[in-house]
């Protein structure tokens, strides 16, 4: 009897490995609704911002667009829900959004106790400081006694306290609920220093009437791995969002772009490339999607490097060095899990 039970258990385990993913509640809701609900920052140049026509653009925006392309066949089937920092995790838990893509730092507290689970690191960042050049401040060690603008509900608050306390320096905070209010307060002179992620500091500086009047200090005082998150408990949706982002990175690794995807689909003999372009193994069935899910992401949204160049690259106002966000083959940390 014991041997029979072990044999049956082994058969069940083997079958479980081979079975495709079963659609979860989020995927069902997205298909019925006809669009993905994407929680974004209200004003984060490079990550998410709306232009004068109300069109949203940015790296986080493209992450949600990749999910829509994979699931619904159209990257534009996304409704963007602007959220402040204190609102974002509540909105995710309550079902107001399907994906939180709001340049949010992946921390243990957020990943383990707020009903969310992070999908990937989409941008490796770190916290820093910006000051008016007229103050003549060159290093963060000169900020003792400073008045610092910081947004509430962010990891920046805790990191700020840790940094000043560890260096036995005093400071006074001026706290606001929204990105816009925090930025406006700093630019209007209500505080001497503004602290947040380095990418946000660069974005905020572009909003100043004269960006040359502000200096981003060189010190990076924390690790800020930014990435999208989904509700905990829906493993199928988690897989879809994770592999949609991995598709963008893997496409860059393989040299596939929006422009050459169709040609490579016809001519390349590379099995990894053909798999990603939906020409060989059906990877979509593993996550409840069709065979061409990843091809649509590349064709409609593009690879990770294309998003980087468009939103952070040398022809943008941000003009940020790619740094740690280079591919692993170029000495960076950006690395796609194998799609095979």
Strand order of the largest sheet: 10-9-11-8-12
What's the CATH architecture name of the domain at 125-222?
3-Layer(aba) Sandwich
- Spans with pLDDT under 50 lasting ≥5 residues? 1-22
Strand content: 15-25%
Q: Identify the CATH class of the domain at 125-222.
A: Alpha Beta
The span between the termini is 38 Å
Number of strands: 14
Give the number of helices. 13
Label the overall shape. globular
Average pLDDT across residues? 92
Cα-atom radius of gyration: 22 Å
CATH superfamily of the domain at 125-222: Periplasmic binding protein-like II
Q: What structural class is derived from the secondary structure elements?
A: alpha/beta
Residues in helix, %: 25-40%
Using the coordinates shown, work out and report the CATH topology of the domain at 125-222. D-Maltodextrin-Binding Protein, domain 2
Structure report:
By secondary structure, this protein is α/β, with parallel strands linked by helices. The protein has a domain at about 125-220: D-Maltodextrin-Binding Protein, domain 2, CATH 3.40.190. The protein has helices spanning about 1-20, 25-35, 60-70, 90-95, 110-115, 155-165, 180-185, 200-205, 235-255, 260-265, 270-275, 295-300, 305-310; strands at about 35-40, 50, 55, 80-85, 100, 115-120, 125, 125-130, 145-150, 170-175, 195, 215, 225, 230. The strands form 5 sheets. A 5-stranded mixed beta sheet has the order 10-9-11-8-12, with helices on both faces. Strand 2 and strand 3 (about 55) form a beta hairpin. The protein starts with a helix and ends in a 28-residue tail after the last helix.
